Amino acid sequence: MLRDSDDLSWYARKAALALTPGRESADDGLPRRLERLLLRLRAAGVKGDASTMTLFTRRLPPGCRPCLAGRGTNLYATGLCTRDCFFCFNQKPRKDELVVHGIGVKTPEQAAEIVERYGLRSVGISGGEPLLFAQRVLDIVRVLRALPRRVTIDLYTNGDRADEPTLRALRQAGLDGIRFDLAARDYDTSPVERALAFFQDVTVEIPAVPRDVERQRRMIGELDELGVPFLNLHELFVSPENAQRMKAEGYEAVDGGHERLLWQPVPESAEAALELLVYACEKARTLSVYYCSCGTQDAISRRGLAWRRRALARP
Length: 315
Ligand code: SF4
What we know:
- This protein is 42% helix and 17% strand.
- By secondary structure, the chain is α/β, with parallel strands linked by helices.
- It has a single domain (55-313), classed as Aldolase class I (TIM Barrel, Alpha-Beta Barrel).
- A hairpin with a 2-residue loop joins β4 and β5 (103-105).
- It is globular, with a radius of gyration of 19 Å.
- The chain starts with a helix and ends with a helix.
- The structure holds iron/sulfur cluster.
């Protein structure tokens, strides 16, 4: 549960953030609206840590726990994709490359060796769209599953290539959970429905897009109806890779004060995320909704860096 001291520091920071000097169209009403939303969330029993804006309604997806402790990593399976989302933060031109824990590798075996060397406990296979290369993803899952220490393995996909045979093969190879970015495909839940037949740990993971709040609310209802266990919301952010397109869509960032991040939040996205959390608290019967904000990601980076230093110092 939130503590009063957390709430107060949270209000102060969000107010400062929304009114950052130099921001041309600062929204003076935003701090008050955020404050009211947080009070509603507190009344509804939201859990988490307000100081980093890490809030959730019921429980966290299994792969998020080691990640929050700084013991997770990202395995970038390719930069190529089937989509071109305006919020995408991948490098352009896109490259077909394999990168794990920020280190470029040539083979799944080399990737697994890095996961083992740093003592990592959860791996998110992402891209681009990893299932453009389904056999590569299967090989990665198998070598990770064969490691002596158990790691939680999740796959991030937009769902375009998530047909039944692929989902079955991923399950058989030992994938733990699958996460769908439905914002990439107009909130079409059909790949999620298919995945529920093969995985218990099915998560929808999307940015909280202010102009889409109504559609995202409707999606929450649909996911709850389907029995999807998890929805993760991200704060929409601006990075050098997406800045031009974000601006064209009317989204600009402010300095969020996140020391370890190379990106900055769009302040209206925090409001959208809190509105969606309130809606989930009040309406969803079983769906758990988690807000992984830029503040959360900054805290994860700090913990991950500390863990990496300790791992490198070990003989
Ligand atoms: S689906 Fe993901 S990787 Fe592909 S364009 Fe959209 S955000 Fe980028």
